[in-house]
């Protein structure tokens, strides 16, 4: 982690969950961190708390759906710090539910944040990194970007897109001296497990969502951040944490049919939870 000392880092969705844990770990390692979030008050509180421990952390109000605001925030960081070493495109929302329950607004919302938000970050920071001849873009996808999921088609579609974007870009970026990795968390204990500040589930209550998440043995966010950062420093291309989730990824590649059968079993369990919930 000593390599992170003095590095300039910009993290979207840094106010909560994984982003907050990454920020704390990076700040403790001596990096200068800009946390950009739609929840500005929460981001500012976290930044102040970490500054009190001696870390160099700043909060920025940003909605990643706004490309001009993203470009302005990155430019301001570079103006202040002189460069940008890491961009963590971490902000994301979960909109769960079977496809027949999703409205066009649901599709637009999840694509705008989870996919377009990442694209906006790349548009803002990549040209600067190319000019620098250095930098590392870390896009957050999910295990839902690697395997067949159940009742999460919108989320899974955006996360598969982020994996595809990251793999293709990694090959190109290497020729400019820029690194690209994609983070694929399994299940991590954060507010997103109960819907998060901006997400929703079309048929499962927040309480039951937590139960479904807990059944998947969520990892602690600080532990996750530590492992993920070590893999980023090793410049791994596709980072799966916790590691045991790699078994599902192998299964997907070995036998997509078997992977779909696993997803069908998961869908059955989700429907059982749904049927126990009175219609809203
Ligand atoms: N927690 C998990 O189990 C898990 C699993 C796989 C992937 N992920 C991914 O990890 C990332 C972080 O999620 P988390 O678990 O920490 O959830 P979280 O809800 O705790 O944090 C998400 C953060 O993103 C911010 N955000 C949402 N929309 C935004 C927008 N339009 N502009 C700016 N900020 C916005 C929120 O305010 C929040 O601070 C997400 O991309 C998520 O999809 C999480």
How would you describe this structure in keywords?
Rossmann fold, two-stranded parallel sheet, binds nicotinamide-adenine-dinucleotide, alpha/beta, 9 helices
Summarize the structure.
With 280 residues, the protein is α/β, with parallel strands linked by helices. It is 50% helix and 15% strand. The chain contains 9 helices and 9 strands.
Structural commentary:
The chain is an alpha/beta fold and 280 residues long. The protein has one domain: Rossmann fold (3-Layer(aba) Sandwich). It has helices spanning 17-28, 40-51, 67-81, 104-132, 153-174, 206-214, 221-233, 246-254, 256-275; strands at residues 8-12, 32-37, 56-61, 86-89, 95-96, 136-140, 179-185, 200-201, 238-241. The strands form two sheets. Strands 3-2-1-4-6-7-9 form a seven-stranded parallel sheet, sandwiched between helices. Strand 1, helix 1 and strand 2 form a beta-alpha-beta unit. Helix 1 (17-28) packs across helix 7 (221-233) and helix 8 (246-254) crosses helix 9. 43% of the residues are buried. Bound molecules: nicotinamide-adenine-dinucleotide (NAD).
Structural domain count = 1
Q: How much helicity do the residues have?
A: 40-55%
- Let me know the number of strands: 9
Assigned CATH architecture: 3-Layer(aba) Sandwich
Query: Globular, elongated, flat, extended or rod-shaped: what is the shape?
Result: globular
Give me the strand/helix succession. Answer: EHEHEHEEHEHEEHHEHH
- Number of H- or I-type helical stretches: 9
